[in-house]
Each structure stands twice: as structure tokens, then as C-alpha cells.
């Protein structure tokens, strides 16, 4: 049980004070927005970010960790756009998501998102307990675990690498033919054979191989650097930065948990360089890969503003929160958790290619819910290419009671983080659990259905192999002892 110290109480009280001052500062906009609302919301959002940094610094939270990546993802996808527009860091565009549904609706969604994200940080403060992360010295048992881990990883890698490369090739080809939208609907089946069963195991295979070198930093990096480079190149040609970020995050978490490198200026420079590449990648979505492609890229390299452009591009997920607040409670009722029960059945049913849970889709995926006629023509017409959002999903289920639910969500993230620490000396299990971060991050701009079937499949598939290998080793050792 996490101990509630004076330091924690002070930080929570400080956070509540900031929220109260935020409410007072924005009071008149809550009743009817006036000119300059974006600037005021941007100021409040920046102050809250400073508060999050203070919390991280005082409580000595890990910088590279699941709790940090979830916070960063939620903030970038839901709040960052108003900071860009409020501080006039980008030219005005009336067609972006921030303005498309009316200023008041955007303001309300941003106010809610800021409060929910702050309560997520409150949850981290409340339930945080410092766990030591040490890797034990190599023992005979450890050597066995390492050998099993590496064997499973290499086997899965060779099984999945060709399907993964073919899938990536199909997506790049679709980008050349149809633009960015083509990558989302690319036919990645090989002569009618779906490759998803293989490709979802590619990241775990990489993590398994890297985890097997938990005592060898040089070899770990020899695997990590080429993989990150490959995904960066793939992102460059397709414009699909979301999947790349979600893939790189668990790799970085594993590296920092095992080797605990100090964050230096060179690391910050690499992050900025990564953002710079992402900015260019975002713009390549709109470009065809033709004879003018490299000339256009050259122009982008000279004009790119990495951090601002990234925030401008990623912050459009606020659309989902706006739409859910327009829909509920005016055209429907709060679900009070029904989404999460339905989501389990829908995800497993879809994963097994069954249709038995199809009637539950309207409770599990809010894009389906918003497409129902009773939501109205405006919402019906806006869900064709709609992504998800954890914050929108929380509003759909709990409304303002989401601030309580998100405290529990923060505890779950900390439990997950502590689970990784406990598994540091079991590389196979650590790799499996570390791969789940991909799906948790995906959830921040997706649906609960994204977090059920794939992690369950990965866990069961690899654990069956792991248990078989462990049993085989035990039988071999027993036979040798009889001899």
C-alpha cells in the first residue's frame, strides 16, 4: 500500500489549487466563450504541464517509463493543439478539429481533458511507491532463462520477419498509389492469407532477443539501434508515426529499466532529432512518392519546426472528446462501465473472426455508437475515418465521474510498471509484458478493444512455448541427475 506522505499531500493540494485558479480564470468562458479563449486555455495548459514536471522532479518518477509515456500521449493527442493555436505558433485554420465543431464545444472538451489528465497525475502521486530495479548477477538458472528467452525470440523473429516486411512493403506501395489514406486500407494479405497473426508477434520477438542480452549493453544496443532506425525509415515513407512511436516506447523502457542510463544532452538532442524527422514524416502524408518527392522533402527539411508541427498535427484527437460530449447526455445515456465489459467480448470475438459479439459494437466502440441515427446528422457524418480516445471513452461511460475512474487507471499503470520491475530477472516474461505498452499507448487514442485480444494472444502463445521449454529443461536435468 502506498504511503500518503506530507510531500504527496502538498503536491495534491498544489494541484487542486491550480485547478481552482484555472476554473476561476476560465469561469466566463465556461458560460460563453469570448475572443482569446484559445490563449487563455493555452496558458492554463502550460501551467499544468509545469505542475506535472514539478511532480516528476520532486517524487523522482522515472522519466522513461510507462506512466510517463501515457501522460505524454494523452496530453499530445488531446491538449497540444490549443497551445499551438493559443500562442499563435501556427497560422489560423478554421478547418482544423479545434474549430470545426464550434468554439464553446472545443473549450468544454479541452477543459475536461485538462482536468482528467491532472487527476491521472493525482493518481500517480497517490499510489506511487518507489521500487528498486536491480538485475541480479548471472547464475546457472539465469543462464537457462536467458537461453530460453533468446531461443524463443530468434525463432519468432524468423517466423515473423518476412510477413512483417511484406506488410510494410504493401503499406509503402499503397502510399505511392493512393497517398496516406492508402496505408490505412492496404491489402496486406499474402495470396489471401492474413498476416496479422504473424506481424503482431514481431515486436515481442525483438523484445525477447534484446531482453536475453540484459547483461550485455553493447549487444542490446546492436539490436535496438537498427530496429529503431528501420521503423523511423518506414515511418518516413508512410507517414504513420503513431504506430512507430508506440513501437519504440517499449524498446526504450526496456533499455532504461535494464541499464539505467542518465539522461544527457545527447539524449535530448536525439529526441529533438526524432521530432524533426516526425515533422517531416507528417508532411509526407500529403505527398506522393514520385519524381518530385525528394525535392519536396528537401524543402521540408529547411522549413520544419519539429515540436510545434508535431503538436499541431497530433492534437486533433480532441475531436473525439468534442463529439462524445455533443452526443452524451443530450442524445444518449452514460454507460457506467458497460463499454469495458462489452469491449472484452467484442475484441475476443473479432480476434477469433467470429461475429457473435457484433450486437455489442455500439457499446464497445464509440465510433459505431456515434453512427447511430439518434445521434443526429452532424455526428453521423463525421465518423467515417474517426480514431478513438481514452478520454472520450471515459466521458462516454462516466461523464465528470471520470476523475474518479482515472485515479484507478493511474493505479493500474503503476501496477503495470511495478510488474515490469519485478520481472527484470525473468527476460521472457519481461519481454511479453513490455510489449503490452504498445497497446496501452494505442488506447490513449484508440478504444478499449485495442487492449484485449492482441495482448491476450501474445501472452498465451509465447507462454505456451516458454512453459514447454522450461519443462523440457527440467526433464533433461532430471535425466542427467539420474545418470
Number of structural units classed as domains: 1
Question: What is the end-to-end distance?
Answer: 49 Å
pLDDT < 50 runs, ≥5 residues: none
Total of DSSP H or I helical runs spanning 4+ residues: 25
Strand content: under 5%
Average pLDDT works out at 86
Approximately how much helix is present in the residues?
Answer: over 70%
For the biggest sheet, the summary is: none
What's the Cα radius of gyration? 23 Å
Q: Which structural category do the helix and sheet elements fall into?
A: mainly alpha
Shape: globular
**H/E topology pattern:** HHHHHHHHHHHHHHHHHHHHHHHHH
Number of strands: 0
List its traits.
483 residues, mainly alpha, globular
Produce the secondary structure layout.
Elements: H1 6-25, H2 27-31, H3 37-58, H4 66-78, H5 80-86, H6 97-100, H7 103-127, H8 140-178, H9 180-184, H10 196-199, H11 202-211, H12 217-238, H13 241-259, H14 265-284, H15 293-303, H16 306-314, H17 318-327, H18 338-351, H19 361-364, H20 366-370, H21 377-380, H22 390-398, H23 402-422, H24 427-443, H25 453-482
Helix pairs in contact: 1-3, 1-7, 3-5, 3-7, 4-7, 5-16, 7-17, 7-23, 8-11, 8-25, 11-12, 11-24, 12-13, 12-14, 13-24, 14-16, 17-22, 24-25
Amino acid at each position: 500500500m502506498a504511503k500518503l506522505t506530507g510531500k504527496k499531500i502538498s503536491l495534491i493540494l498544489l494541484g487542486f489549487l491550480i485547478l481552482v485558479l484555472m476554473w476561476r480564470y476560465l469561469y466566463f468562458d465556461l458560460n460563453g466563450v469570448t475572443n482569446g479563449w484559445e490563449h487563455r486555455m493555452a496558458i492554463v495548459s502550460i501551467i499544468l504541464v509545469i505542475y506535472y514536471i514539478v511532480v516528476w522532479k520532486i517524487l523522482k518518477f522515472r522519466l522513461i517509463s510507462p506512466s510517463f509515456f501515457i501522460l505524454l500521449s494523452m496530453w499530445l493527442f488531446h491538449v497540444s493543439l490549443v497551445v499551438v493555436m493559443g500562442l499563435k505558433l501556427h497560422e489560423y485554420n478554421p478547418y482544423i478539429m479545434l474549430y470545426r465543431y464550434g468554439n464553446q464545444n472545443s473549450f468544454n472538451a479541452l477543459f475536461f481533458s485538462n482536468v482528467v489528465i491532472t487527476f491521472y497525475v493525482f493518481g500517480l502521486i497517490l499510489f506511487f511507491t518507489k521500487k528498486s530495479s536491480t538485475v541480479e548477477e548471472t547464475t546457472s538458472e539465469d543462464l537457462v532463462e536467458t537461453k530460453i528467452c533468446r531461443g524463443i525470440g530468434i525463432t519468432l523473429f524468423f517466423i515473423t520477419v518476412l510477413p512483417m516486411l511484406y506488410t510494410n512493403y504493401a503499406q509503402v506501395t499503397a502510399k505511392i498509389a493512393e497517398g496516406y489514406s492508402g496505408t490505412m486500407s492496404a491489402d496486406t494479405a499474402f495470396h489471401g492469407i492474413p498476416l496479422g497473426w504473424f506481424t503482431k508477434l514481431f515486436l515481442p520477438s525483438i523484445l525477447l532477443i534484446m531482453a536475453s542480452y540484459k547483461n550485455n549493453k553493447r549487444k542490446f544496443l546492436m539490436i535496438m539501434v537498427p530496429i529503431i532506425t528501420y521503423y523511423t525509415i518506414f515511418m518516413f515513407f508512410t507517414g504513420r508515426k503513431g504506430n512507430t512511436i508506440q513501437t519504440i516506447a517499449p524498446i526504450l523502457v526496456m533499455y532504461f529499466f535494464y541499464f539505467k542510463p542518465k539522461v544527457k544532452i545527447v539524449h535530448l538532442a536525439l529526441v529533438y532529432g526524432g521530432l524533426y524527422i516526425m515533422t517531416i514524416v507528417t508532411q509526407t502524408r500529403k505527398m506522393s512518392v514520385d519524381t518530385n518527392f525528394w525535392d519536396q522533402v528537401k524543402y521540408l527539411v529547411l522549413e520544419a519546426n519539429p515540436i510545434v508541427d508535431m503538436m499541431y498535427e497530433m492534437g486533433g484527437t480532441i475531436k473525439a472528446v468534442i463529439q462524445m460530449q455533443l452526443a452524451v447526455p443530450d442524445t444518449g445515456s452514460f454507460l457506467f462501465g458497460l463499454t469495458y465489459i462489452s469491449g472484452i467480448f467484442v475484441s475476443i470475438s473479432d480476434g477469433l473472426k467470429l461475429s457473435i459479439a457484433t450486437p455489442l459494437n455500439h457499446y464497445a466502440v464509440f465510433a459505431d455508437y456515434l453512427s447511430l441515427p439518434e445521434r443526429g446528422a452532424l455526428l453521423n457524418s463525421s465518423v467515417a475515418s474517426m480514431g478513438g480516445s481514452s478520454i472520450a471513452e471515459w466521458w462516454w461511460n462516466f461523464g465528470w465521474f471520470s476523475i474518479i475512474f482515472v485515479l484507478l487507471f493511474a493505479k493500474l499503470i503503476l501496477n503495470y510498471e511495478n510488474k515490469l520491475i519485478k520481472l527484470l530477472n525473468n527476460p521472457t516474461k519481461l519481454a511479453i509484458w513490455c510489449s503490452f505498452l504498445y497497446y496501452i499507448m494505442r488506447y490513449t487514442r484508440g478504444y478499449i478493444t485495442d487492449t484485449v485480444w492482441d495482448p491476450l494472444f501474445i501472452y498465451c502463445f509465447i507462454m505456451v512455448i516458454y512453459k514447454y521449454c522450461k519443462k523440457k529443461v527440467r526433464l533433461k536435468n532430471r535425466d542427467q541427475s539420474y545418470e
